[in-house]
Every structure is written in C-alpha cells, then in structure tokens.
Amino acid sequence: MKFVRRFLPVILCGGWLVAFAFAQEGQQKINAADRDLAMRIHQTIIADKSLSTDAHNLKVISRNGVVTLKGPVHSEDEKKAVMSKTIEVVGTRTRVSNQMSVKP
Questions:
Q1: How far is Cα 40 from Cα 37, in angstroms, rounded to an integer?
Q2: Is residue 95 part of a domain?
Q3: How many CB atoms lie within 10 A of CB 95?
C-alpha cells in the first residue's frame, strides 16, 4: 500500500502527459500564419448563414499551410459548400484535407 501511495502521483502525472500529447496532435499549431489562415476560413464558414450549426462548428486546423476540416455536417451538399469556401480562402484544393462526415 505504501508503494501505491508513494508512486500514485507520478503515475497520474505520467498519464496526464501522455493524454496531453495525444490531444495536441489534432489541434491548431501555435504559428501566426497558420492561426490566421484557420481563423479566416472559420469566419468565412460562419458568415454563410445557409450552413447548419454543425458546419459552423467544424474544427478548422491549419499546419504548415495545409488545412484539415473535421466534424459532422448535414449533407453532401453542405460538405461541398464548406470545401468550396475553404478553397476560396486557401487558393488550392491540394492543401485541404476533408475529414468531414455527413450526419445520418
């Protein structure tokens, strides 16, 4: 029991660090150009009131100029609309990773 009590904080802290590292993998990098690009795309999507709340809440991640769109949307048409708006901002389709899913 002494062993568990003595090393429990170390074990918990180690688990927290591993969880933090995995959580960072799918998040926005701390780079001004990438943050600005992600923000401009997100603002463009939100400005389109014809898109659903789900589309407005998509996760937009930019890393080294490559944009990833994650989250659910209501239809294939909405997915295409979001892609089109993203490409308008980014300038090319090859720099956009579409990881959106259509809600059943």
A1: 5
A2: yes
A3: 15
Residue pointed to by tokens 């959106």: 100
pTM of the prediction?
0.70
Name the residue range of residue 51's domain: 27-102
From CA 64, how far away is CA 81, in angstroms rounded?
24
Helix (H) or strand (E) holding 70: strand 66-73
Exposure string of 51-63, with b = 16+ CB inside 10 Å and e = fewer, is beebbbebebbbe
Q: First and final CA of the chain: distance in angstroms?
A: 50
| Tally of domains in the chain | 1
**Confidence class for position 27, pLDDT limits 50, 70, 90:** low
Tell me the pLDDT tens digit for each residue of 71-87: 999 999 999 999 999 99
State the maximum Cα–Cα separation within the chain, in Å, rounded to a whole number: 61
Cα separation, 70 vs 4, in Å, equals 40
Measured CA to CA in angstroms, residue 57 lies from 5, 22, 60, 67 at distances of 43, 21, 9, 15
